[in-house]
Amino acid sequence: MTDRIAEIRAEAEQAITTAADTPTLEDVRIRYLGRKAELPNLLRNVAELPPSERAATGKAANEARKALEQAIEQREKQLAAKELDARLVRDRVDITLDGDPAPHVGRLHLITQTRREIEDVFVGLGFNVAEGPEVETVYYNFDALNHAPTHPARLLSDTFYVAPVTDIFDPDAFLLRVHTSPMQVRAMEQQPPPLYIIVPGRTYRPDNDATHTPQFHQIEGLAVDEDITLADLKGTLLHFARAFFGDERDVRLRPHHFPFTEPSVEVDISCFNCDGAGFLRDGSRCPLCKGEGWLEVLGAGEVDPNVYAHVPTTEANAPGYDPEKVQGFAWGLGVDRMAMLKHGLPDLRIMFENDLRLAEQF
């Protein structure tokens, strides 16, 4: 029996030495050390041999098994290293080549797309695009816009002040602007009427929920000329609503109050999800307008004469902004809210989470 064990060991060692790759070596292991192989069966049947042969046979079989296991392990390391070297040569990557497939060059964020779409509408109507500082003074942010000293927006809890402020009524105190409206007076200081501008940009308020974020985007509009009425405002916003939300849209104005406009209005558009009916075709209530048939989109109004009083009359803007000679209208809309409404987003905050699954849809 020991002679047969020696023959098996010699055959296996020869097969291990000549194995050209790891799959072949695995076949050798199974053939000589697998569950059905002859050598393991000899070990399992040692107890059935005559007592005089058990010790010698068991010892020889165990030594052969251990020797073959060691030989397979060593040969496996040799073959694995050889195969790795070959694979590194075969799979060499030229990092100077373009990616396959070519990487995406990116695209504009939904908010940027929406802002540019809105800008295009008003530029097409003859408005110019103006930009102002995001860090503003209390004067331009509140005082020049006819905000009363007791207006709640001035409170430390409602506005981000840039530095510790001991007096929130100090006109020279700095804050993060709560709207882009400060550019109304800034623009009027720089040029005489007629004036037609839109002011896009980031604004800041300490709000955070599904429809409000601490930092958001707004577009202010201002038109100052002779014989401008509320009807001109409605016509301008009707054109915008149809250009942005679809040709079938209508607008309505509801009385409201803003410090820097008089009269002031809230502007609604007919719901584009249910065509203003308030209900869907299956009879269920429209989830977008909540059955109202209208969507509130922005605030607007005729420029309050008190705002013109903050524009100095100089040779540069003569004859100045005399409320007896010029009138104007203004409006403000949230770019983020427009994107949310138009594309049916359930939560404003998801536009700021940098989730590519959302960004790649637009």
List keywords for this structure.
362 residues, two-stranded antiparallel ribbon, 9 strands
Structure, explained:
- It is a single chain.
- The protein has 362 residues and is an alpha+beta fold.
- It has two domains: 2-90; 110-359, 2-Layer Sandwich (BirA Bifunctional Protein, domain 2), CATH 3.30.930.
- The protein contains eleven helices and nine strands.
- The protein has a seven-stranded mixed sheet, with helices on both faces.
- Helix 1 (2-18) packs antiparallel against helix 2 (22-33), helix 1 (2-18) runs parallel beside helix 4 (51-90) and helix 2 runs antiparallel to helix 4 (51-90).
- The longest helix is centred in the first third of the chain and has 40 residues, at 51-90.
- It starts with a helix and ends with a helix.
- In the predicted model, the low-confidence regions spanning at least 5 consecutive residues are none
- The shape is elongated
Mind summarizing the main beta sheet? Answer: 7 strands, mixed
CATH architecture of the largest domain: 2-Layer Sandwich
For the largest beta sheet, what order do the strands appear in spatially? 1-4-5-9-8-7-6
Q: Any idea of the CATH topology of the largest domain?
A: BirA Bifunctional Protein, domain 2
Number of strands: 9
Instruction: Assess the beta-strand content as a share of residues.
Output: 15-25%
Please give the alpha-carbon distance between the first and last residues. Answer: 78 Å
Mean pLDDT: 87
Number of distinct helices: 11
The CATH class assignment of the largest domain is Alpha Beta
The fourth-level CATH homologous superfamily of the largest domain is Bira Bifunctional Protein, Domain 2
Q: What fraction, in percent, of the residue positions are helical?
A: 25-40%
Tell me the domain tally.
Answer: 2
Alpha carbon gyration radius = 40 Å
SSE succession: HHHHHEEHEHEEHEEEHEHH
Q: Which structural class best describes the helix and strand composition? A: alpha+beta
